[in-house]
Amino acid sequence: MAFDATFFALVGLVVFLALVIYLKVPGMVGKSLDARADQIRNELAEAKRLREEAQHLLAEYQRKRKEAEAEAANIVAAAEREAQMLTAEAKQKTEEFVARRNALSEQKIKQAEADAVNAVRSAAVDLVIAAAEAVIAKKSDAAVQSDLFNRSLNDVKTRLN
């Protein structure tokens, strides 16, 4: 019997398969594949858990963002209301200030008018007195002046005593 290369290849294959079965390589490969499948399954579960956690965090951050936007809108509205109140208050104070200044100006004008009237009256009285002196000086002679002087002197004496 002649053994050619095909026969030796067949014998080598049978020995190889026997060795693989004896060393329990299919079991090790199965265990390895099962371990890898378990590892992939665990990674998928972890990825799913992380995804759910990320979605939860996203929803929470979106809720917080909406709350922050609402709070910012409330702050802006409050600031606008306060600005309107301050504007109205400033307008009212300005109007009151203008009214007080007008009243004070009118009072000063009335006082100035009264002072001017009193000054005119005083000047008129001084003028009338000067005119009366001039008229009396022209119409009276020395005797009349002496008589007036004596009467005035007697009036003063009686009042002093």
Automatic annotation (TrEMBL):
Keywords: ATP synthesis, Cell membrane, CF(0), Coiled coil, Hydrogen ion transport, Hydrolase, Ion transport, Membrane, Transmembrane, Transmembrane helix, Transport. One of its GO terms (molecular function) is proton-transporting ATPase activity, rotational mechanism. It is found in: Cell inner membrane; Cell membrane. The chain crosses the membrane at residues 6-23. InterPro entries: ATP_synth_b/b'su_bac/chlpt (IPR002146), ATP_synthase_B_chain (IPR050059). One of its GO terms (cellular component) is proton-transporting ATP synthase complex. Residues 30-96 form a coiled coil. It is a single-pass membrane protein. Its main location: membrane. F(1)F(0) ATP synthase produces ATP from ADP in the presence of a proton or sodium gradient. F-type ATPases consist of two structural domains, F(1) containing the extramembraneous catalytic core and F(0) containing the membrane proton channel, linked together by a central stalk and a peripheral stalk. During catalysis, ATP synthesis in the catalytic domain of F(1) is coupled via a rotary mechanism of the central stalk subunits to proton translocation. HAMAP family: ATP_synth_b_bprime. Belongs to the ATPase B chain family. F-type ATPases have 2 components, F(1) - the catalytic core - and F(0) - the membrane proton channel. F(1) has five subunits: alpha(3), beta(3), gamma(1), delta(1), epsilon(1). F(0) has three main subunits: a(1), b(2) and c(10-14). The alpha and beta chains form an alternating ring which encloses part of the gamma chain. F(1) is attached to F(0) by a central stalk formed by the gamma and epsilon chains, while a peripheral stalk is formed by the delta and b chains. This is ATP synthase subunit b.
